[in-house]
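REQUEST ID: PR-0412
SUBMITTED BY: lab tech R.K.
PRIORITY: routine
TASK: structure prediction, single protein chain
INPUT:
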Amino acid sequence: MQALEPAVRYRGFVLIPQQDFSWLVRPERSPMHVLPFRAPACSISDVKALVDWRLARLGRDRRPRLDLLPQQTKSSSSSPSQLRLENIANNQQQRYCA
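STATUS: complete
OUTPUT:
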């Protein structure tokens, strides 16, 4: 008999592997916003995606949505390391052009 992987905690849930390679997903504590459920035989990343999908469907996903974040623009307040890298790149470019 093959040993099972240990249970995994993820975003308030415990992901418990089963003998048939499916997953039992249970909330860590009450109140339960999502009832316990079984996930089919799949990878741990697939089970995590399923948990994320269920939380997002209920509006309980607290992670920032990338489409709502402001787009990054080129700002004059670059970090010192970024300025140093840009300076090195410009110097190397000038050497090759000269």
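NOTES: The mean pLDDT is 78.
REVIEWED BY: pending
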